[in-house]
Amino acid sequence: MADSRLEPVVLSEDEWRTLTGWARRRSTAQGLAMRARIVLACAEGGGNVAVAARLRLRLRLRLRLRLDRKTVARWRSRFLAHRLDGLSDEPRPGVPRTITDAQVEEVVVRTLEEVPAGSTHWSKRELARQVGISPTSVAGIWRAFGLQPWRTQNFKISTDPLLIDKIRDVVGLHLAPPAHAAVFAVDEKPQIQALQRSAPVLPMLPGVPKRRSFDYVRHGITSLFAALNTATGKVIGKLSARHRAVDFRDFLDEIDRQVDPGLAVHLICDNLSTHKAPVVHAWLLAHPRFTQHFTPTYSSWINQVERWFAELERRCLERGNFCSLEALKAALEEWIKVWNEDARPFRWTKTADQILDRICRYCDRISNPAH
Question: Which stretches are annotated as coiled coil (predicted)?
Answer without folding.
Answer: none
